[in-house]
Each structure stands twice: as structure tokens, then as C-alpha cells.
Amino acid sequence: MKAEVLSKFDQPWLPVMAQLLFIAVFVGFVYYAYRKKNQVIFQEQSMLPLEQDKNAEVYNER
Amino acid sequence: MNEKTEKLIYDDKIIKMFIMATLLWGAVGMLLGVTAAFQLADWNLNFNLEWLTFGRLRPIHTNAAIFGFAGNGIFAGIYHSTQRLLKTRPLSNALSQFHFWGWQLIIVAAAVSLAAGYSHGKEYAELEWPIDLAITLVWVAFAVNFFGMLKTRREQHIYVAIWFYIATIVTVALLHIVNSLEIPVDWMKSYPIYAGAQDALVQWWYGHNAVAFFLTTPFLGLMYYYVPKAINRPVYSYRLSIIHFWSLVFIYIWAGPHHLLYTSLPEWSQTLGMIFSVMLWMPSWGGMINGLLTMRGAWGRVFNEPVLKFMAAALTFYGLSTFEGPLLSIKSVNHIAHFTDWIVGHVHSGTIGWNYFLVAAMLLYLVPILYQTKLYSQRLANWQFWLGTIGLLLYIVSMWTAGITQGLMWRAIDESGRLVYPHFIETVVRIVPMYWVRGFGGTFVFVSFLIMIYNLFKTIQSAPEQKEIEYVVPVANFSHKEEKGHRKLEGLTLVFSVLTVLAVLVGSAIEILPSFLANKFVERNDAVKPYTALEIAGRDIYVREGCYVCHSQQIRPTVAEKLRYGEPSTAAESIYDRPFQWGSRRIGPDLARQGGKYPDMWHYRHMLNPREVTQKSIMPNYPWLFVKETEFGILKKKLSVMKSLGVPYTEAEIDGAIASAKAQAEQITTGLASSGVPAKMKDKQIIALIAYLQRLGKDTKVSAELTEGLSEKGAE
Question: Looking at B121-271, which runs of residues are DSSP E strands?
């Protein structure tokens, strides 16, 4: 029944636009993620969960 | 890095509270799951008690497991990791407390109301309107508390886990509100504003994305935080995590593969759609590989440390279930698997293998740290792991076997073109042994959970006197002027959040639009009339008892289904169905063409004791329907609400609702009198239910007979 209803959907431009938009954003993020000069930034970012242990979480017994 | 520092005490109390709630609701949810599993193996375990019957128990199990267990687990992890990642406390202690107690109250209200039969009749969204409102309120409090942490943070940049949390909070709010739009009839009864096909499409949009944004994205956030923490090394590829996040948000919401496959898109677009359906594997497997490779070089530790063992298993099951999901959406596979236990097995490989195991890893890691002690017993944790894993494997394999066996039996046709197994019960009896195996597998998982509770309880007991810990954190003072690109974007929390919201909203709008316009595409069938007042009363009983968890009302356009049930269902048939009752599992046969198939007395006897008319049936007895009276008084209000939603009832029909319902009940009871049913039964709920069941598919049959008659006349 779902197929029956959707097969009559008369505005195919909508999902087509969504696909194109998705592809554009996807390609953009892949390009951004794999740009060489961002490598250093990503390395820093990836340390965030661990850095807190080194720098911030200092046990201070009272 | 800022050089100025200040002291901060994190709010660990709220985390501990959510951990306790996770353990409590996890145990409740699993106990209910095991009970429901054995009820299918032996119907006697329904004990003829209405509040314990499978149809009511199953939604309580799913709500306790999803919202009670997984929900509280998510909140515990989010409050812990977000405070540490952003070096701040939740915005307000009062909001945290409101969030916690409000959420627990919702779960209790859900359990009590579902047991009492107050159900909205839509899977994973069964709760009635006052509880829906409470969920909205508590979720908003959580969102304010969470975004408050982003505002008061002392860390300039937002780690990838936080992105997943943002997407979760925004999308769940959207899904819940859109799917819960309903008009109240009284304080615990409402009808959805959507009907039939439209209701089904909105519900599936909710269901599909709720899995994505309640059981996937928050857990991925937890994975990206706790796996590096536990292994003490950064995530394998931060680049991959960026692609993982945006692909998940986009593909899940935007490239709804089912929509692309069925719509009248140009062929190139359909092909592209297929490619993206397959690409759904990419972000999921990207995430899994990212998590597993974070453990590279430390596999020796994985074998020895239960926390890492659970993490590795959780990621593996995440990979398995996200591979199986798209596989099941392939038409030829779906043809066998749909409505069978294969889907149940698939769901549990995700909820137990991914959600339970990841929460277990998080708790075994977190509780000792929070209570400043060591885990009570590594040995017990190892027992927990192996029992849980073996139990889950028993569960999955038994459900695969049951699902494929039954799916093949349903469609088996012999050389003469007849069904090989024409009696539905034959296909049920064949898989009952698998239900026992599933029950034992579930019991193993439940016992493993109890072991964890004991282990953590003893850990907490052995903890030293709790001291508040002060952390030295940098003073918040950062500007974004020197930042560029995504790094700058992450620094601008508000902008980043708005972009995420925008991505979700635009994607949702694109996917939901065909659903909102669905009514426009449903070809009207003038023979389909609104339900009578008594049928409405009967339908509400059908919804209350959760009949939809075992019976579908959707005959698919296949030869086997046509032979077994009759003409395939059409969207026009359910235009007055609020809520739709197409169902998702056939533990019993489809009921779309049930009307007139058997006499009223058959239904009367069947509901009293199904085995009287169908030997070896596993359906529970419904004795209370023969004692409880139909609420005739509210029918006028019900029809009036239906009319306000667009059902073409006349004022006369509404005014005469009670009288007409009583007259129809009397007519049915008079028919039953010859079989010895006393006249006083006319006011009982069984009569209303019979009225509804006898109506199912009737309009279409009348329409088909009329068409046939007219064409015969034409031929003459």
C-alpha cells in the first residue's frame, strides 16, 4: 500500500533535488575531511577526550 | 590554549542517578521481554490476565527497553562526557533534577497506562496524549540543559561526540512532535490527525528515524568518547568521523531508500537512489571500522579487559545489524522476511548487541571511576559478557530460522497452484520450538544483566567515602577570529547547531512531504464507508489489546497472499483508520479480509478460547471482554472528534451514535442467541469487537461484487 501511494507521488523534483543536494554536501565534506592542511587540526581535535585527563582533571583531595 | 585556570566540580550526582535508573529499567525491560518470549512459546503464560497478556506486555517491554533502559543510559553518558568534553556543568541543577524525575515518571506512567490498556496503537509511539506532552516538556528541559553546557563551555571546540548528541536532541524532538499530533477524546484517549496510508507513512518516518536518532546517533557519540577513553588513545580517524556524522545525518533522513524506489522518479535518479541505499552501509561501517581500528595494537587488552570486550562486541553487532538492515530492504529479501521473526531477530541484534553491550561497556568503565574505586570482579564481568553473547546468538539464530522457515512456508505453492500450507496455524506450530530457544537465549541475556547489576552494586559498596573532586580547567576566553572552515564552524556552537538542525529539518521535510500529501494520491473508493459507532468502539478495543502486534491488516500483492487472504489491500480501504493498523508482524494471520469470513459465533468462541476453533493456536484467551461493558456513553464524543478530523459523519449519525451502537449490538447478540449466548451479553465488549472484526474488508468485497454484477449485466 505504501508503494501504491508513493508510486503516484507527482513531484519527483523533490527527491531529485534532495539527491543532488546530498551529493554536493557529501562531496564537500569528503574534500574537506581529506584536505591535507586540515590534518593537524584533526589530530588536535581527536585528542580532546584524552587531553582532559592530562591537563584538566587534577585530583584535589580536601 | 588559555593560560588562566579555575576550579570546577562536575555534577556527578545526576550521572549516578541516571546510571541507577538505567540498571533498574534495563532489568525490568529484559524481564518483560523474556516473559513475552515465553508467552509465545506457551500461551498459558498469559494467565488470562488482561494486564499481563502479550498484546499489552510487548509494548511495555519495548518502551521499558528503549526509553527506560537505552534512554537513561544515553542521558548518563551524555551528562558525563559532555561535562568533561566542554569542561562545564549542566546549565541548572533544577533542570537536571526535573529531567531525571520527569523521565522516570514518564516511564512509570507508560508502564501503568499500557498495562491498563491506554494505547495509541502505533508501535514505539503507543503512549497517550498526556504522556506525549510530558515527553515533550522533559525533552525540552534536557535540550535547554544540554545547550546551556555548550554556551557555558570552557573548551573552544566541539568534539565529534557532541555533534551526534546535538543531532539526537533536535531530531528526536521533531520526530516525536510530528508523529504525536492527535486530538483528545478524553483524558486518556485520542485519535491521530493522520489516517490510513498517511498515518502509516508518518509512523514509518518516525519509526525509521527514531531507530537512527535514539538508538544509533547518541550511542555513536558515546562510542566516539568512551572507546578512546577506555583504550587511552585517540579515535583511529577523525576524518572518517566527520564523514560518518554528516553521511549518517544526511543519508538516514534524506535518502530514504524506500521512497526513492517506489516514486515515479526518472530512471537515472532511481539508479542513483539504489546506489545511495547501498551507501547506507558506508557511514555505518565507516563508524564501526573507526571504532574497531581505534583498538588496533591493543587486541591483547581486548581479550583480558571486559570493558574492551563489550566495546568490540558492540561495534561488531552494530556492523552486523547495519548490514542486515539495508539487506532486508532489498525487495526480494524483504519478500521473505517481512512480517516474520527475521525482523525481530534483526531488531534485537541491534538493541542487545549494540545498545546493551555498549551501555555495559560504558557502565563497567564509568562506575568505578565515578565512585573512585575498582570494579568489584573482572571475572563476573567476563561471565556477563559470555552469557550475554551466547544468549544473543541463540536469540538471533532462532529468529533467523523461524523467520525464514515461516516466510518460505507462507509462499509455498504446489504444482496445482494451491498453497502447500493453507492453514496459517501450520506455519506457527512449526516455529514454536524456535520460540523456546529464543526464550532461553533471552533468559541468558537477562541473567547477564543481573550479573552486571550485582557487580556494579558490589563495586559501589566497596567504594571509599565519596569526596568531591575539584578539576582545574581553563577559564573560558576564546575568540573565533583566527579560525577557518569547519574548525571555526565548530567554535561557533550556535551556527553549528543551526546548520545541523537545518540539515535535519530540510531532510525531514523532503522525506515527509510525500506523506503529508499522501491523501491526495489515494484513489477514493466510494464503497468504503466510515465505521459505525459500535465498530469504532470495537476498533478501540482491538487497539487497546494490542492485536496489531500479532495481526497485520495489509495483504501484499503477491500470488501467495492473494490465495491465502484474498484481494490485495488498497490504500483507499484504510482512509478512516485512526490509527492505521497495518501491523509489522504476523504471529497470527492477516485480518484485512476477516469480515464475513466466519460467523459471529466463531469469533465469540475464538476470543473466549482460541483453541476451541483453531487447534494448537498460541493466541491468549480474552475472558475479560465477556465481563466488561462497552462504553456507549463516549461514542458521541468519539464520532464528533472523528468528524472534526474529516470523517464524513452527519450530525444525525453523531447524535444517534449511542442508540445506533446499542441497536447493532442487540442485532449481533440476537444472532448469537441461537447458540446459547444470553441477551444480556449485548452490552459486553466482545460484541463491539465482533462488530469491528466482521467489518474488516467488507466494503471492498461489496465493491467487488457490485463491479462483478454490473459487468455480468453488461455482458448479458
Answer: 182-186, 189-192
Partner-chain residue, chosen from B234, B521, B523, that has the shortest CB–CB distance to A46: B234
Asked if residue B627 lies in contact with residue B684, where contact means CB atoms within 8 angstroms, the answer is yes
The model's pLDDT over B449-495, given as tens digits with 9 standing for 90+, comes to 999 999 999 999 999 987 778 888 888 765 555 555 555 565 566 67
The CB-side HSE value for B5 (13 A sphere, CA atoms) comes to: 12
Residues of B in contact with A57 (CB under 8 A): 84, 469, 471
Residues B471, A58: C-beta atoms closer than 8 Å: yes
Note whether A56 contacts B473, CB cutoff 8 Å. yes
| pLDDT tens, position by position, B612-649 | 999 999 999 999 999 999 999 999 999 999 999 999 99
- Distance from C-alpha of B98 to C-alpha of B80, rounded to nearest angstrom: 17
Q: Are B642 and B532 in contact (CB under 8 A)?
A: no
Classify the C-alpha dihedral B605-B607-B609-B613 as positive or negative: positive
Are B175 and B132 a contacting pair, CB within 8 Å?
A: no
Asked if ipTM goes beyond 0.85, one says no
Q: Among the listed ranges B133-137, B146-150, B299-303, which one has the minimum average pLDDT value? A: B299-303
Residue B189 β-bridge partners: B186
DSSP per residue over B23-71, as a string?
HHHHHHHHHHHHHHHHHHH-GGGGTT-GGGSHHHHHHHHHHIIIIIIIH
pLDDT reported for residue A33: 84
CB spacing of A15 vs B276 below 8 angstroms: no
Is A27 part of the contact surface with chain B (CB cutoff 8 Å)? no
> Residues near B684 by Cβ (< 8 Å), separated by ≥ 6?
B625, B626, B627, B628, B629, B630
CA distance B263 to A9: 6
Q: What is the mean pLDDT of chain B?
A: 90
Calculate Rg over the CA atoms of chain B. Answer: 27
From B216, B269, B204, B270, select the one nearest B244 (Cα to Cα).
B216
Nearest to B242 among A22, A29, A56 (CB): A29
The pLDDT confidence band at residue B142, using thresholds 50, 70 and 90, is very high
- B396, amino acid identity: I
Exposed / middle / buried, residue B393 (Cβ in 10 Å: 0-12, 13-18, 19+): middle
CB B691 within 8 A of CB B534: yes
Contacts of B194 (CB under 8 A, 6+ apart): B181, B202, B578
Using a CB-CB cut-off of 8 Å, the residues of chain B touching A61 are 467
Report yes or no: A31 at the B interface, CB cutoff 8 Å.
no
Beta partners for residue B94, in sequence order: none
Contact B510 A9 (CB under 8 A): no
Q: Which of A1, A12, A34 sits opposite B569 (nearest CB)?
A: A1
Q: For CA atoms B313, B317, B318, B319, give the dihedral sign.
A: positive
pTM, entire model: 0.92
Evaluate if residue B120 carries a pLDDT over 50.
Answer: yes
CB B179 within 8 A of CB B202: yes
Give the three-state DSSP class for B189.
strand
Residue of B197, B240, B470 with shortest CB distance to A60: B470
Query: What is the pLDDT, as a whole number, of residue B282?
Result: 74
Residues of A in contact with B255 (CB under 8 A): 18-19, 22
Q: Quick check: B238 and A5 CB within 8 A?
A: no
Amino acid at B283: P
Rounded to whole angstroms, how far apart are CA atoms B169 and B166?
A: 5
Which residues, listed in sequence order, are joined to residue B483 by a DSSP beta bridge?
Answer: none
pLDDT score for B274: 62
- The SS3 of residue B309 is helix
Confidence at residue B491, expressed as pLDDT on a 0 to 100 scale: 58
Q: How many CB atoms lie within 10 A of CB A4?
A: 18
